[in-house]
Amino acid sequence: MRRGKRKSIRNEPYQIPTATESYEAFPSLEKNKEYILSQFHNTEDIKFRKLTIENITCKLAYLDPLVDEDKLQKTIMKPLMEKNTLNIEDTVTSKEYRSSVDLNEAVTGLTKGFVVLFIEGHQHFYLLEAFSANSRAVSEPINEQVVRGSHEGFVENIMQNLQMLRRRIENPNLVIRFFKVGKTTDTKLAIIYLQHLVNPELIDEVEKRITSIKTDSIQTPGYVEEFIEDSPFSPFPQMLSTERPDRLTAHIIEGRIGLLMEGSPSTLVMPVTFFAFYQSPEDYNSRWYIGSILRLIRVASFIFALGLPSLYIATVSFHSEVLPAELILNIKSSLENVPFPPLLEALIMQIILELLREAAIRLPGPIAQTIGIVGGLVIGTAIVEANLVSNMMIIVVALTAISSFAVPSYEMSMSIRLLGFPLMLLSASFGFIGLVFGLSIILIHLCSLETFGTPYFSPLAPLRLNELKDSIVRLPRWLLGDRPTDVHPQFNKQEWRSRRWKKNEND
Amino acid sequence: MKTTSTINNAQLFFIIFQTQVGVGVLSLPSSLYAETGTDGWITLLITGGAIQFIIFILYFLCARFPTLTLYEFAPKIIGKYAAGSISVLYVAFAIATSVIVLELFETTIKTWILFRTPMLVILLLLTVSGTYLAVGKIKVMGRFYQFVSILILPLIVMSAYTLKDADIRYILPVGQNGFASILKATQNGIVSMLGFEIVLFIYPYVQNKGKAALKSLTLANIAVTTLYTFLTFTTFVFFSPNQLEVIPEPLVYMLKGISFVIVDRVDLIFLSIWIISVMTSYVSYLYIAGRGIQRLTKRKKTTGSILIASFIALFFSMFSHDRYTVEMLSGYHAKASYFFALGFPLMLLLISLLFKKKEESQ
């Protein structure tokens, strides 16, 4: 017992002083400076600038890397020097202005890009915003490209991201709630939703889960996802991660909640169903037949990516009699010189493929092409000529890989390929029987998975015929009168007979 | 934050349907043939009528206690101790049914697909996946059953395809063995169509009770009767009476004979789909047994009790068995099932009517 207790004390994460405990400021400039320096452990990027206003010495303190020089000059230093008055509130043109006597608040403010103004002989000081909002230029996210449609992508700056969303939904009902998470990093999280639409229980639940996060640091949205998702051991992603503002907007308008994080361009959508991972914003930009066909192809790609190698393994190693004679002759002749069982062949090829994929991501563009040629052409042909893997298996694995990359979400495509491995083992051991049981277990898991009170495999299980028209296919927009009900929005209607002009037309 | 644990009426329909369609479908045509010759398909229609009658009894019993399962309302009707023993019997019956499903499944798989795989492994495949489904509770079962019911369509298409080689003269003249033998064969029909008694245990979870639930039950019965009659009829017009006498699983043999463009052995596909139907029946009985054990041991969660039930079923199915012992066992089981599907519920209904026992409405 005692040992455990001591250990837990030792493991208590180091905490920077936040505004929770207060420390009263001194009237003396030097003492204040001393305290702040000691709180920052004499870091060298903290700057102090002396000013004289109304013949009183003042001091500006700021963390140099966080502060925008332009803002500092234009909104703080220039007005102070020109007007030369201690009426700070009316002088400074900075966006945010606060006055305080708690030095720890000054310390927290400094870490967030505030400039602190101390005045000799005054105990209270001022916090003036001069945050540097530099971020990279908006560009299309490379992992979610579309042919037609918006080419805007989120950036690392949360405010700019929120601005993109506000511009897309110009509505006072769009609510943003900020959270501070992480004892050391004090990361800014934001959830965004439409107040008049979202199920209030859902908001409470999301807020409850976020506020219960107690951790040292949050570095990517993946941390948050793992803290708040329902089934952490499920192979399926339960929150949609997207870098596209149009995709996030579409989900917010369906009554879901978006989660943004400072420092990351990828945002999370919750709750989502399985089929959200198979939808792309561009579906709504093409003719509805085309959008529907594309969606059907993606659903087929799910089945191929999951089951094709195992179906092949089961067929050639157990039930080759299922195939007609002409086909089986072709397959068996390509298998003839291969010394390995089909399972091993498939594993070799799948692992080579995953290696190639992983290597190609890390390398810069031109070299990645070389990897493509070496991997695809050289290994592909050589491995067949060396009789290590059969022609058929190359075709099957290539088809599987292509199918899995057709999924618009990267996490989902990885999950599916990984789920293929246990299925391959099962079908190599028990043939079709193993495959059927493996697929049933996956299906049972999909049926029982729920995220934030929403069945994950809706609208297929539980079956909601009315919602199939905007999940597996995409019917014209004017036929989609109701929102998906899986999130229990406060009202269902989303379209009010937009084509009624047709009735009034005379022939 | 969880969704409600209720099932809608479509899910009720599919739960009943999938519980009824199960292991028996393969051997049904030959067992009917043995009893009443080529008139077996008429027997099934009559059986459907008889089952409808039982369904009314079960429904009236459930409707008197709309928020309670049999394990919960039995004590209110016949007192704690008698109800306890009936509950134990029901649990034993459900486990016995699971054991028979497991054994029939194992023999069929061994005969048709995996000849040399150890028995335990095949049993484990069904037990593990079935238990995983059963612990998901009734709403997950409802979703799953509804989803996999789409697989019945290819079954029908495959069987319908064989009708091109059918000869209607095989079943003529209709009624050649007399009405008495047709009626007598009804018991063979009822045994393979058992499963509707699950309504006694899931009725409290149905969203729209009353007439809508009765409609689902009736539709499920109609669907099962139609499906079974169709399949039996197909085999009877496909095989000549002489052939039927020697074939134990006519449906599979029938499909073995046909081939499509890229599929040469349709029977393997058929059996792969049939596995799902077996699994659903197995899971339903596991659920009944699990709920009973939970109720009797006064546990809060179902998961542990369902695990216990599946272990017991696995244990008993592991005893070495040949075709004949299985047949003997299922014979006893068939006789017992009359009590569980009809006898006990009828008794409970009569007593509750007599003493005006009813759940107090809130």
Number of strands of chain A: 12
Q: What value does the Rg of chain B take, in angstroms?
A: 20 Å
Estimated helix fraction of chain B? over 70%
The domain count of chain B comes to: 1
Mean pLDDT of chain B: 88
Backbone CA Rg of chain A: 30 Å
What oligomeric state best describes the polypeptide chains here?
A: heterodimer
What's the CATH topology name of chain B?
A: Amino acid/polyamine transporter I
Helix-strand topology string of chain B: HHHHHHHHHHHHHHHHH
CATH class of chain B: Mainly Alpha
Distance between the termini of chain A: 88 Å
Q: Can you count the helices of chain B?
A: 17
Which stretches of chain A of 5+ consecutive residues score pLDDT under 50? Answer: 1-19
Describe this structure in words.
The complex is a heterodimer of chains A (507) and B (362). Chain A has 3 domains: 2-129, no CATH class; 158-272, no CATH class; 284-454, no CATH class. Helix content of chain A is 45%, strand content 12%. Chain A is built from 16 helices and 12 strands. In chain A, helix 6 (158-168) crosses helix 9, helix 10 packs antiparallel against helix 14 (391-405) and helix 10 (288-317) crosses helix 15. Chain B has a single domain (9-354), classed as Amino acid/polyamine transporter I, CATH 1.20.1740.10. In chain B, helix 14 packs antiparallel against helix 15. Chain B is mostly helical and 362 residues long. At the A-B interface, helix 7, helix 15 and strand 12 of A face helix 6, helix 7 and helix 15 of B.
Which characteristics define this entry?
heterodimer, A: 507 residues, alpha+beta, 3 domains, five-stranded antiparallel sheet, 12 strands, 12% strand, elongated, B: 362 residues, mainly alpha, Amino acid/polyamine transporter I, 73% helix, 0% strand, globular
